[in-house]
């Protein structure tokens, strides 16, 4: 399904519930394959979602409708297309708990309001785990119905294969480590697991609106233990919550939970340290896969925070009963991933957005994105008048005045450029507000010599004027290659 088809489908869904779309904007992806859109209507705004993973869609739709009926703060699923690939849900805005964490880290001050938000999140979590669990059809869960021993082992091996093994400097006995993994899984799987487990209960998935919290992205939920989600929230590594504050928040959570069941009877405290280890190992596995394997810079930047949390936790809770696992964890602190200081974090938050603008030839393939973000906008200029077909322009480029005059005389060129400016401006504005670090915009034509160079140059000059607070990089790929080879 093409993007235009997705937007048309979402527009039709909006009309089916009596909402006339005025504008549909793509929302920046968070790392998943799902595509999100904000749909502005005459009366409100909605969130449109597209995914070709039908089972995952069905899990979210079922869970959301169940939780919504139970009075929990989740999106109302308003419409679903027949193919079950697109659906509409309530819009809670863009203000997340993670944004409040960022502001707290940037200021370096003790923010009592942030603690209040965490308390609210834990109060809601208890409702998800206990009330949301009642009558929930776990056969709809994706990819599995229960967080069991097999799922625990999957997280442990994720850590081994994607983080430990890529670091050849870590010395360990694999047979002994696997035995420790199995014994660790045997113990942790004894934790009572008859409650709803959100699986990704962290600040990016908690929205702040009208002095309350709302919750999204629970499609990976399943039946599971209580500890895991508490740890996911309080040990989110980049939030850097002080341990004393964590302990207070855990006690707050247990007080809320005691309205429904006794934390001591289910051994909450007994299992808690091991769930901290499990979550941190799972996170390091994810950072290894997304960062070390897929070369995504955001995940690489997060590694030192996770290592710091692991080392700090291990100092006070050593895994003496699992000697080979303890051996591996004790070596993690020697890896060369320096932790940012509060000043460097503030500098990161205040650093300029880098926008890389490329011109290229479609014959030679798409430009590489060295930021690790997977690429950005690619605009195809081949539908526009081609100066390369005119003999007098064969040796010229899109930077020569003769080619510039030729293209400027064509109305279609101006229409194309204005559309590009509007699209790119939306992302630049949004990325600056969210402290994103990189955006890539590429223009391709047949030879990478005339039209693509013209548009890349024009966008560069325009952004330099309209957004003087960003850092621009201009890269005419084909022209650079020719210059390097003296062609």
Provide an overview of this structure.
By secondary structure, the chain is α/β, with parallel strands linked by helices. It folds into three domains: 3-90, Phosphorylase Kinase, domain 1 (2-Layer Sandwich); 97-340, Aminoglycoside 3'-phosphotransferase, Chain: A, domain 2 (Alpha-Beta Complex), CATH 3.90.1200; 351-484, no CATH class. 48% of the residues lie in helices and 14% in strands. The protein has 16 helices and 13 strands. The protein has helices at residues 3-16, 54-69, 97-107, 112-131, 149-164, 174-188, 227-234, 243-257, 268-293, 297-316, 323-332, 342-350, 401-408, 411-433, 451-466, 477-484; strands spanning 21-27, 35-41, 45-50, 77-80, 86-90, 195-197, 206-209, 212-215, 222-224, 354-361, 377-380, 438-445, 471-476. A five-stranded antiparallel beta sheet has the order 1-2-3-5-4, with helices on both faces. Strands 11-12-10-13 form a four-stranded parallel beta sheet. β4 and β5 form a beta hairpin. α5 (149-164) packs antiparallel against α6 (174-188), α5 (149-164) packs across α9 and α10 crosses α11. Residues 341-350 have low confidence and may be disordered.
